[in-house]
Design goal:
alpha/beta, two-stranded parallel sheet, 10 strands, 385 residues
Length: 385
């Protein structure tokens, strides 16, 4: 029987074809996988920043929807000094921050705010969104918020060792500080000082009919939370040398009175704080009234907070020689005015200047201009000495 010499060759041919088919299929599958990976990477490179920016935009301005042309919205305004990413990661330097302020050292800028609200309108009220913009600007401009205790150490020793130092302060003890400012300060771990009017706190006069009409003040619980955070110091803004801040009429509110500095000096309440009441008291009674008020404020706040109260924010920023003398006798060691300027080691401890930036017109651009002018003026004055 003849032998078939072609059979082994046929087997090897079939095996070769099978190997070729498997190799070709594997190559096709690898190409498909690599192509999908490339597409996925492209999607990651394009989608993630958009999502981050969208999240930042939503957190910045809840009233601004997609495509909003709100000029105050940092995610849609290319000229804004605020970068939306800094909201999500405040420790990350802002790569698109505008040119910063002039550098300074051995000086402190003290910033002042009052009320934060979207609903109450006055020259000394800013929105929660605007306050966040301010804090972002402080971060992006390289300013360094310091604690109240660090400021006191600087005044006592002349040593600061921190460039571009700022101290954030609030007057009046409004509840809006706890609701709107405190969360942002915690996010950035920025310290602040709250100058409180203890005679108007919720827990001291809860049943007073006037207090029920006022802008809400801090409660005992809220004050405890502020103190426990170790970010906020509570100091005095007198016991009750202020007008009633009624919600019924904006013209009767302390914020509206404060909004018109040129009118303040002729106002009866300002005179009540800075001179004897006409036809009612003489100089002795006037000084006695001031002493009692300042002592009551300091005592009440020390009892409530368990911490020393040694600093005073003058009511409406106004003061005279009697106020300074009585404040010293009442146990205060420092006092803040509403006059612009920078604090240096030689500043009078009862004439510490502050820059009021809690005004409704103070957007980040105006904030930068204001601080630039403060720094330039202080630098020029120092050069003259």
């Amino acid at each position: 029987m003849p032998v078939n010499n072609n059979r082994p060759k046929s087997k090897w041919m079939i095996l070769s074809l099978l190997i070729l088919a498997i190799s070709t299929t594997a190559s096709i599958l690898i190409s498909i996988v690599l192509s999908n990976l490339h597409v996925t990477q492209q999607n990651l490179n394009t989608d993630v920043p958009v999502q981050v920016q969208a999240a930042a935009k939503s957190n910045h301005d809840p009233d601004s929807g997609p495509g909003s042309d709100n000029p105050s919205n940092p995610t849609t305004n290319p000229t804004s000094p605020i970068n939306a990413i800094s909201q999500i990661n405040p420790d990350k330097p802002n790569p698109t921050a505008q040119p910063g302020l002039p550098q300074y050292e051995n000086k402190v800028i003290v910033l002042t705010y009052h009320h934060i609200s979207d609903n109450f309108h006055s020259n000394f009220t800013i929105s929660p969104h605007r306050f966040r913009e301010h804090i972002e600007y402080i971060h992006d401009a390289g300013l360094q918020p310091i604690s109240f205790q660090r400021l006191l150490t600087f005044l006592e020793t002349g040593e600061l060792n921190i460039k571009n130092a700022v101290l954030i302060t609030f007057d009046d003890g409004y509840e809006s500080f706890y609701e709107h400012a405190f969360p942002v300060l915690k996010e950035y771990q920025y310290p602040a000082v709250q100058f409180v009017v203890p005679g108007k706190l919720q827990s001291i006069n809860p049943g007073d009919e006037h207090h029920q009409k006022e802008i809400p003040k801090l409660s005992s619980y809220q004050i405890k939370q502020l103190i426990d955070s170790r970010l906020v110091e509570i100091q005095s803004h007198t016991f009750e040398l202020h007008f009633i801040e009624t919600l019924e009429s904006e013209s009767e509110s302390v914020s509206e009175i404060e909004a018109e500095p040129e009118v303040q000096q002729s106002d009866a309440q300002i005179r009540f704080a800075t001179e004897p009441a006409a036809g009612i008291e003489d100089d002795t009674n006037y000084r006695g009234r001031l002493y009692v008020d300042l002592m009551m404020a300091r005592t009440a706040l020390e009892q409530k907070t368990g911490h020393p109260v040694i600093a005073l924010s003058f009511p409406y920023g106004f003061y005279n020689d009697d106020m300074i003398d009585i404040a010293q006798k009442a146990g205060y060691r420092y006092a803040f005015t509403s006059e612009d300027g920078m604090v240096n080691a030689d500043t009078h401890p009862f004439l510490l200047p502050r820059v009021d930036v809690g005004r409704k017109e103070m957007d980040p651009v105006q904030l930068q201009k204001t601080l630039h002018q403060i720094i330039a003026t202080a630098t020029a004055d120092a050069d003259k000495e």
